[in-house]
What does this fold into?
Amino acid sequence: MTTRTHAPVPPGEGEALGWGGFGVVYKISGAVTGGAFAIVEHPMQPGVLAAPPHTHTREDEITLVLEGEVGLQIGDDVFVAGPGTYVVKPRGVPHTFWNAGSVPARIQEIITPAGFENYFRELAEILAASNPPDLEKIGALAARYGLTFHMERLEETLRTHGVGLM
It folds into this structure.
């Protein structure tokens, strides 16, 4: 079977996963780009923190805000970005993001190099398997993907930005 690298992905299509007001829609996988990059979209409900503060060691992320207002903290910089705004979240720099508005938001993430997009699929499996989530399994998953969570910053992030967990 040949992978079609030029197959269109129309708006509203792509494999979709979601939990607690945050989602992932797969648009272009690393398998299609030879591992160069992957593209996913993240829909977020109002007032939702998309991820605890964290640092990637293997990939850079480029965010494009498609809808709504998205708050971001990258290193010590905190700002709100609206539709059409691009933001670079470089590897090695702690960051987090949230829906800063009163309506749903949606971002597109370009992940380079590809590979990290698979983290979300594995995370969804862990989250679906137990309630509350198995934090040990999530920690092991994060370690496999070179991801470090900064849980010591979580409470301050939630309080400062008036958001809740997914």
Remarks:
- The mean pLDDT is 91.
